[in-house]
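Q: Given only this backbone (301 positions), what sequence would you predict?
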């Protein structure tokens, strides 16, 4: 089947630089996706965007180029609850990838078992309205109860402004809860202002809540190096990520978000994203926890 990518869709950057920051051995890119290829794994009819293909081979080449050892491949909304592309990538990773799936209430126990054997360790609940249609919370809670039995966790994706409404649901989840992209703060607001304080409070009061400190390129208003010089790249986002890494060093993860869906004005160089890591995790110990200890504990133990 032929798919035409969404108008204005930016292709991922094919010539990422070699990072100057040397990743510690055993580092995990804990948030990335595969898209298609669509002739093998068609995009879901209910999708809100059509990306360009981004295959497992291309993901694994990026992993090796940047110096990661492993990946966590997160099901993207353009594939709906058809997890075949993600599972195929896991099965070809030689044990070097784990997955986070999207499932519906009708998923069978046999399917969950097969996904577990392939390397799935979590499900993703997406609350970003431009990406998904609403799923009732009782359905999500039922799924959370079932996947808890497999020792899986729940990944949640939402906008900071929606956290008050989602608070009761998140805090009732029976599993580890991993928040995507630092809870998507509005970085024009202060890092110690009420909106981000609510997210910090969620992590402080609920030791089962983790955060990915990923996606400066998605959250930034001031933008990338091309506009401001490398030293100032995404400078508005870094204080938010740094605060979470320093306050909760044992519950943070980092990922590239390759191939960077839905970016409107620029496509980041993944090598330069890696070079920002020491600015959010300034010590070798913080870097080891963020990149090695935490993701390996959550996905490979
Ligand atoms: C991300 C962010 C986005 C997209 C998805 O599943 C998805 O389609 O997660 C986004 O558009 O903000 O984590 O890749």
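A: Predicted residues:
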């Amino acid at each position: 089947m032929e798919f035409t990518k969404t108008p204005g869709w930016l292709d991922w950057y094919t010539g990422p630089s070699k990072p100057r920051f040397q990743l510690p051995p055993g580092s995990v890119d804990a948030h990335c996706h595969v898209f298609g290829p669509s002739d093998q794994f068609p995009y879901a009819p209910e999708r809100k965007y059509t990306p360009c293909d981004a295959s497992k081979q291309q993901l694994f080449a990026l992993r090796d180029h940047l110096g990661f050892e492993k990946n966590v491949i997160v099901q993207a909304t353009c594939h709906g609850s058809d997890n075949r592309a993600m599972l195929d990538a896991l099965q070809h990773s030689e044990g070097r990838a784990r997955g986070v799936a999207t499932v519906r209430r009708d998923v069978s126990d046999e399917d969950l078992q097969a996904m577990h054997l392939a390397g799935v360790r979590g499900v993703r609940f997406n609350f970003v309205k431009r990406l998904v249609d609403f799923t009732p919370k009782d359905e999500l809670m039922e799924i959370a109860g079932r996947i808890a039995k497999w020792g899986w966790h729940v990944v949640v994706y939402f906008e900071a402004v929606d956290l008050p409404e989602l608070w009761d649901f998140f805090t009732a989840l029976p599993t580890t809860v991993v928040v995507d992209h630092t809870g998507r703060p509005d970085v024009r607001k202060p890092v110690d202002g009420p909106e981000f304080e609510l997210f910090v409070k969620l992590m402080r009061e609920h030791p089962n809540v983790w955060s990915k400190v990923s996606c400066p390129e998605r959250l930034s208003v001031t933008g990338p190096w091309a506009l401001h010089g490398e030293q100032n790249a995404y400078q508005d986002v870094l204080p938010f990520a740094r605060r979470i890494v320093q306050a909760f060093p044992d519950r943070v993860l980092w990922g590239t978000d390759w191939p960077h869906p839905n970016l409107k004005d620029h496509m980041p160089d993944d090598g330069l994203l890696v070079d920002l890591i020491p600015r959010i995790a300034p010590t070798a110990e913080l870097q080891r926890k963020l990149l090695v200890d935490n993701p390996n504990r959550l996905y490979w133990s």
